[in-house]
Amino acid sequence: MKKMLRNLPGMLMALGWRLQAGLAFAVLLPVLAAFLSDTWIGQAEEDNVGIVATHQRILAFQDLQSLLLEAESAQRGFLVNGDLQYQMAYDQTVPKIRQLSGQLVDRYAEVQPNSPPRDARKVQQLSVEIGEKLAEMDIGVSYARSGDLERGRELVNTNRGFELAASISRHIDELLANEHRILGEERAARQRVVLYVRLAVAAAWILVLILNLGLLLMFASLLAQKSRQARDMAQRHAVLDARIHEKTSALTALSMDYQMGVERERAKLARELHDELGSILTATKMDISWVQREIKDQYPNIFEKLKRTLRNLDQGIQFKRRVVQELHPSLLSTFGLIASIRSLAEDAAQRSNWQMELALPDDETKIDETLSLIIYRIVQESLSNAAKYANASKVGISLMVDDEHMKLEIEDNGVGCNLDNLPGDTHGLQGIRHRATAIGGKLEFRSEPGKGLYTRVLLPRTFVKEKQHPKVLS
């Protein structure tokens, strides 16, 4: 080897200046390509940030349009028949409109100087018009609340209301058109950068191949050393495989820690809702009950109103309990996984009018606490998806446990879907996949339009040291 290195300058001189220049160029150009690729990749990352921000603005404007339509529909429905459901829908929608309008103003105020041109003044004008429109709608609703429906209808039918609505719609359409144009330009710019990177990498690879060919011709006499080079390469591959395995394990542990962190925050929020909000609602109910008893004979109308208020409070308390249970399944720590799944399935079947089929182990089956929580969340997410999208009448849940694995199967007879053409917002299925793969599990979805959805999850009974995942069900 030392002799070869000593003779290398002479060998290169013997090859001629053209080949020497070609080899030098082949060495320097990949370095230049790598430098340019790194620069372009940074530019592509900046373009991606801009694309995400533009997409979020488009979604915000679309949400604003939808909320405005909902508010107008609720207002007109309330003014037509005085139904309180329309009033409640209106009261829930208006704060969302104000909040989203303010957020859009802030986003456009934060646009960087080197970003594509955006008209912040137009957004500010849109926010002002929305405020005027909401003020006008509030006046009409206030008349209706006081019983003067006719006056509220007259206010809605004024030309000013129609002009405001038309101006708001026109401004949103103009802003959306501008954002879509910017989005197209940003995507085109990113595609150009990706093309440059690909060209640079391709050129580098071609030159590397040329260099390897030249070196092979130059050092044909060194074929005897190939076995040693192969052994060195195998050793490097082994090192790289070990590093990949180490990084994969670290990412798996990180994903698991993230899920457990989310569950701890959910448990904390559930405790706060149970302690703080529960005590407030209970105290309020007691106070109203006391007022009822005091005025029952003197003010029967107020008594009936308070009676309705108590019913609303009871609904709020039940809703609070359901939210707390969904945030933090306390049944897991009290009764275990099997009883918790059974309770969750029965409640879902009752709400959605399903025929539920359960095949579960004995309630005394011991399962790791972290694994129990992951399985519970998978079942919870699957039932939630079935209730929202499946339109099913029959759901089956099966859980089998042995010494090494747990197999969970969930099936419904709903509308099904095309798994090869799912929309990008299928967070439910993605959440199930992440929970399963985070602990080394395997997941399978099977579905066709009109044939329901079948989910099978295979999880290991032991996956990581207990000390790495603090308890979250306390």
Describe the structure.
This protein is of the alpha+beta class and 474 residues long. The protein folds into three domains: 30-207, Four Helix Bundle (Hemerythrin (Met), subunit A) (Up-down Bundle); 225-328; 331-468, Histidine kinase-like ATPase, C-terminal domain (Heat Shock Protein 90, 2-Layer Sandwich). It contains twelve helices and five strands. Helix 11 (369-390) runs antiparallel to helix 12. The longest helix has 70 residues, at 226-295. It starts with a helix and ends in a 14-residue tail after the last strand. It holds the Pfam family CHASE3.
Secondary structure topology:
Elements: H1 2-15, H2 17-81, H3 84-109, H4 120-145, H5 149-156, H6 159-218, H7 226-295, H8 300-327, H9 330-335, H10 337-352, E1 355-359, H11 369-390, E2 394-401, E3 405-412, H12 427-437, E4 442-447, E5 453-460
Parallel strand pairs: 1-2
Antiparallel strand pairs: 2-3, 3-5, 4-5
Membrane topology: Multi-pass membrane protein
Domain Histidine kinase: 268-463
Keywords: Cell membrane, Kinase, Membrane, Transferase, Transmembrane, Transmembrane helix, Two-component regulatory system
What's the quick description here?
This is Histidine kinase domain-containing protein. Helix content is about 75%, strand content about 5%. The protein is of the alpha+beta class.
